[in-house]
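FAQ

Q: What does a record look like?
A: Structure on top, sequence underneath. For example:
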């Protein structure tokens, strides 16, 4: 190894300069404890599948998911280009984003332990469920609050009691999000074949050279699911970063590349919105890091709400 630089301040993943077969290459090293084995296992499986199907993504160089040296590790090639997000994207870039998603979704995939079923983006959190329980807890009489907390812990094992209490106290909702939750519950969940999904598809996880798409990174929540899991995520991302018309360009790029119309788009747009916070300010550090310092929390929230209202207008029901 010639050099190691952290990709996030003072912590990994690490960008390495290494020599391999007499050639200098850049590689990314992700390290973790046994607690991070599921994410590293999923990323390794997703990258191997992407490589087998010529999907633009990093290529695995070495894997240690047993922690033989005390730490789990995943080493893969670093993609060239930049994930910085422009203030004003071209239609070509937006359509290329949709086409990149379509290429991922060409892979038919049944759920497995390594690549599990995904029913929403950002599978590590379910803000829709957290808001439901928080609404019940905050509206309950003082004598009933512990019972609500007990119910949440029984329904969602693995939570620390005090951590759960803090979530129930601090989580806020909005009238629009609550109405969307009720409305979505009246609609049948789309059925059909599952495909490979990235699970966290947004502009910050895509590498570019100008308007030329290079590849997709950060596959730790990939899995098998409906294409809408990714389409809803990347469309909402475009809507909050660039405004509503950008989401239409994403969809056009996906449909052109896949050769078919996308199904159940309003449903998946609503699902995606429901897994965001009432106040979108929490996403600002990540978005600012990607180069969009011009955006503020109110803009993100207002654009999310406009995107959600549009989806609700188009959503059918039982």
């Amino acid at each position: 190894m010639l050099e190691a630089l952290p990709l996030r301040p003072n912590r990994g993943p690490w960008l390495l300069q290494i020599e391999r077969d007499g050639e200098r290459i850049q590689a990314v090293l992700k390290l973790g404890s046994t607690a991070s084995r599921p994410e590293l296992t999923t990323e390794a499986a997703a990258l191997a599948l992407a490589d087998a199907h010529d999907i633009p993504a990093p290529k695995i160089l070495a894997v240690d998911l047993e922690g033989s040296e005390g730490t789990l590790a995943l080493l893969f090639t670093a993609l060239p280009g930049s994930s910085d997000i422009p203030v004003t994207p071209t239609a070509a870039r937006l359509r290329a984003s949709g086409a990149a998603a379509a290429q991922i979704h060409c892979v038919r995939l049944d759920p497995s332990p390594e690549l599990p079923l995904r029913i929403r983006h950002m599978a590590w959190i379910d803000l829709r469920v957290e808001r439901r329980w928080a609404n019940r807890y905050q509206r309950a009489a003082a004598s009933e609050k512990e019972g609500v907390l007990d119910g949440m812990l029984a329904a969602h094992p693995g939570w620390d009691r005090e951590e759960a209490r803090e979530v129930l106290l601090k989580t806020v909702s909005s009238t629009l999000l609550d109405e969307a939750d009720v409305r979505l519950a009246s609609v049948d969940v789309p059925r059909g074949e599952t495909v490979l999904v990235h699970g966290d598809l947004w502009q910050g996880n895509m590498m570019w050279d100008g308007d030329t798409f290079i590849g997709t990174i950060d596959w730790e929540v990939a899995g098998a699911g409906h294409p809408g899991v990714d389409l809803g995520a990347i469309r909402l991302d475009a809507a909050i970063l660039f405004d509503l018309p950008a989401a239409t360009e994403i969809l056009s790029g996906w449909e052109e590349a896949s050769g078919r119309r996308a199904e159940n788009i309003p449903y998946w747009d609503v699902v995606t919105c429901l897994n965001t916070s009432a106040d979108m300010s929490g996403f600002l550090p990540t978005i600012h890091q990607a180069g969009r310092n011009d955006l503020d929390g109110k803009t993100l929230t207002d654009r999310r709400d406009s995107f959600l209202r549009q989806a609700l207008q188009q959503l059918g029901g039982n």
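Q: Is there anything notable about this one?
A: The CA atoms of residues 123 and 260 lie 27 Å apart.
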